[in-house]
Amino acid sequence: MVFWRAWVLILLYICSKTFSQNSYELRHIARRLPYRMLDLMWNYVKRSSERIDAANYIRIRHEESPHFELGYVMGEVLER
User: Fold this and answer.
1) Of 46, 45, 71, 69, nearest to 57 (Cα)?
2) How far apart are CA 42 and CA 48, in angstroms?
3) Cα–Cα dist 38/8, whole Å
4) What is the DSSP code (8-state) at residue 39?
5) Which among 23, 50, 10, 62 is positioned nearest to 72, based on CA atoms?
6) Where are the domains of the chain?
């Protein structure tokens, strides 16, 4: 029982030292923020264009087939 308590105290001591050493550098975060926002926006645009290209492929494939009405319905469903 004493060993368990000692182990918990040692673990708490190590954790407190670790958390106190990991202080946030606000200047570094402030300098990095515009670049991170730009990365997030670029990834959003890239993913949306990939989704649009995939939807257009499905739409073109069905609208150019003899089953145009099915493609039209599919296009309406994809737009909503």
Assistant:
1) 71
2) 10
3) 44
4) H
5) 62
6) 2-79
Separation between Cα atoms, residue 31 and residue 16, nearest integer Å = 28
Evaluate if residue 71 carries a pLDDT over 60.
Answer: no
Whether 75 shows a pLDDT value over 80: the answer reads no
> CA 16, CA 30: separation in Å to the nearest integer?
26
CB 78 within 8 A of CB 58: yes
Six-digit token string for 52: 């649009």
Cα 58-61-56 angle, rounded to 5 deg: 40
Q: What pTM did the predictor assign?
A: 0.43
Whether residue 61 contacts residue 74, with contact meaning beta carbons closer than 8 Å, is answered with no
Find out whether 75 and 61 touch, Cβ atoms under 8 Å.
no
